[in-house]
Amino acid sequence: MKFATAILFSASLVASAAAHGWVGTLTVGGKAYKGNKPVEETPKGAPSVVRQIANNLPVKDLTSNEIICGRDAKPAALSATAAAGDKILLDWNSAKPDGNWFHDVGPMLTYLASCGSASCAQFDATKAKWFKIAEQGQDATGKWAQAKLDDGTPASVTLPANLKPGNYLLRHELVALHTAQSPGGAEFYPSCSQITVTGSGTGAPAASELVTFPGAYKPATPGILVDVYNMRRKYQFPGPPVAAFVSGGAPPKATASAEDSTTTTAAATSSKRPTTTRAATTTTTRAATTTTTRAATTTTTRAAITTTTRAATTTSRVAATTSTHAAAPPSVSSAPPKTCKGKRSRRSRSRAVEDVPAAVEEIPAPFAEIPAGARRRHMHRVVPRSL
Ligand SMILES: [Cu+2]
Question: How far is the CA of 80 from the centre of ligand 1 (A)?
Fold first, then answer.
């Protein structure tokens, strides 16, 4: 209850905060294509290659179609022409004074899906079968790829050199992890651009490397449920591994039919990742979907996850009424975390300390130490959940 009160209190203090972002420019083959601001700011966007989103709040519901291309994204009118092997630059913008993206904790992932023989302008993204072509996490100093957008550097993705020509949706995704220590805390910002790839390549993913959205991510997926401020191992990316053909490798042997995307994803994952990963996923998923409280648990791990789940349930119930965000990470840093506006807030720091369940540190997520000073938190504007 104390937790809920704190959230309500802060919601009244922060009536509005800086909005989130969109892909403002996509550059490929020396040509820059403008993306439109969200519909709520630019109701009549100019013809573009970037699918326009309705507003720039984060996507948090992994079962919603908004996880595909962003909040209520609509097909774009145009397609950008790209040669296989081309570098694509995506400049993410926001309403921040300097115009740059502002979250700095979390990875960037890039997927492609074939639109088939028709133009992507006619393609229904709910039918898309996605394969991953890139994933970018932290550099050697612990700086996240996403933090470079904050500096004004566009994201850079290289199309596979041997990619089969055709029409593709390019799904570029930012995952902000500053509150990801609780289920439902991660924020997703997918953006889809329509491209026509030229060349004579034959590279294509195996059926076992394809995933669907929604479906590829679950609230307890490692890399989505993760306390980035207490990582003990290297960050583990969500979703399937990068398709083997991207680096010229042979596709993994298919062990499941392409129709069964859940099995396919699990098979693809296990081929590259240790079996402990799957065990952890199973455990966390079970905990996350259980509504009854387990009285006795056999391991600290499960107890920790159950505690976290319960906390998260409270959070989302509160969030439904106030449209604010989950708790800040447990703060042990001497520097208070920043708000979305980039201002440091003493209040958010003290609240963070009392709100976060202590057991959260026990989550067996992928971990490597990153500087404590890199923490940030923020609040979002109040907008009806039904958008
Ligand atoms: Cu945010």
Answer: 29
